[in-house]
Amino acid sequence: MKRSKSSRRWLDEHVNDPYVKQAQKDGLRSRASYKLIELDEKDRLIRPGMLIMDLGSAPGGWSQIAGRMVGDQGRVIATDILPMDSLENVDFIQGDFTDDKVFQQLLDMLDGRQPDLVISDIAPNISGVAVADQAAAMYLVELTLDMVRQVLKPGGNYVVKVFQGDGSDQFLKDMRTSFDKVMIRKPDASRSRSREVYMVGKGFKG
Predict the structure, then answer these.
(1) How many domains does the chain divide into?
(2) 205-to-149, 172, 178 alpha-carbon distances in Å
(3) Which domain, by its residues, includes 161?
(4) Rounded to two decimals, what is the model's pTM?
(5) Is 60 annotated as a binding residue?
(6) Which of 163, 151, 32, 157 lies closest to 98 in space, CA to CA?
(7) pLDDT (tens digit, 9 = 90+) per residue, 136-187?
(8) Which residues are known to be catalytic?
(9) In the chain, which ranges are continuous DSSP H helix?
(10) Which one of 30, 55, 146, 177 has the fewest beta carbons within 10 angstroms of its own beta carbon?
(11) How far apart are the first and last CA of the chain?
């Protein structure tokens, strides 16, 4: 099958991407791992012994890093509609976290505890229709914020990928109502032409 120009460009970029090569060398699941590493270096998000929830976790790039950083005394509870191979210090639930049954499984796994940090590198399947893709992406991040408001520990932190565009300014305003401080970050590992940024909420008001 003949590849489109844009998918050819993506493939070339991907093959020659220094972060892709580094991930293979470091035994990491994806180049996205370096985004979380950078965010943590800047905002001091993860400590040993923490309880972390990872929404939209497959293939496990963020869960892998978080699991290593929390250590044996901590735990990462990860969920995605796609399957994900097991990782150290990570419990995985496959399914849609907005589905009542999956939500209940997550609550059962929390067992009355509240995560110190909720992370999400979630993105919708891209249709190629810009307006529809942006709407789908914003809908997903809004769902992660709903989850955060239900489970996050007061004073806890939240990191979410947001595509800048229609709805992103409104989302930032909404996020600011629930956190003491909200920062916008663009890690070096994030491709410069991508509209993705990461919003980091610190000090959940509960």
Answers:
(1) 1
(2) 9, 15, 5
(3) 5-204
(4) 0.88
(5) yes
(6) 151
(7) 999 999 999 999 999 999 999 999 999 999 999 999 999 999 999 999 999 9
(8) 161
(9) 5-16, 18-26, 33-43, 61-70, 100-110, 130-151, 168-176
(10) 177
(11) 52
